[in-house]
């Protein structure tokens, strides 16, 4: 499988985002009610497989840290796309000089324990707040 990482400039709300991000289980993500074509805050990337959108990565950075969000189409979960998105987000964060990436696992997330374990398996650690997961951005040798 070959996945393509595509930066959206500008990012806007469209049908694939409504299906994948907007269609996430209730309580798992902040409410995402946008009008079609509305420009979105933060930086967005989409993942395509054979021209089909299968996931999204989002990042908002300030003061050396970046909040990240990832969403994978439900029918494509469990195939490594989430790890691919997370690694690409880290690459983007590194290029910006970010020290940490973090993800907020909402208390209302229906699979909070599973998502927390998955993030811990990918280098995140619970921060001072119960629902905040942080991962130090790896630096490449000589970079």
Report on this structure.
- There is one protein chain.
- With 143 residues, this protein is α+β, with helices and mostly antiparallel strands.
- It contains three helices and seven strands, in the order βαβββαβαββ.
- A seven-stranded mixed β-sheet has the order 1-2-3-4-5-7-6.
- β6 and β7 form a beta hairpin.
- The radius of gyration is 15 Å and the shape is globular.
Descriptors:
single chain, alpha+beta, 143 residues
- Which residue ranges are poorly predicted, with pLDDT under 50 across at least 5 consecutive positions? none
How much helicity do the residues have?
Answer: 10-25%
Whole-number mean pLDDT: 89
Rg from Cα: 15 Å
> How far apart, in Å, are the first and last alpha carbons?
29 Å
User: What's the number of helices?
Assistant: 3
Please write the string of helix (H) and strand (E) elements: EHEEEHEHEE
Number of strands: 7
Structural class: alpha+beta
Major sheet: arrangement of strands:
1-2-3-4-5-7-6
The portion of residues forming beta strands comes to 25-35%
Q: Specify the biggest β-sheet.
A: 7 strands, mixed
Characterize the overall form: globular
């Amino acid at each position: 499988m070959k996945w393509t990482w595509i930066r959206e400039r500008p990012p806007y709300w469209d049908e694939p985002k409504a299906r994948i991000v907007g269609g996430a289980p209730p309580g798992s993500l902040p409410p995402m009610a946008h009008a079609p074509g509305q420009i979105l805050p933060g930086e967005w990337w989409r993942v395509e497989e054979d021209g089909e959108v299968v996931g999204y990565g989002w990042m908002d950075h300030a003061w050396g840290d970046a909040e990240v969000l990832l969403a994978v189409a439900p029918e494509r979960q469990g195939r490594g796309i989430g790890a691919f998105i997370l690694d690409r987000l880290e690459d983007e964060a590194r290029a910006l000089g970010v020290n940490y990436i973090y993800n907020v696992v909402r208390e209302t997330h229906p699979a909070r324990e599973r998502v927390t374990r998955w993030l811990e398996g990918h280098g995140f650690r619970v921060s001072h707040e119960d629902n905040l997961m942080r991962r130090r951005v790896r630096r490449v040798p000589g970079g």
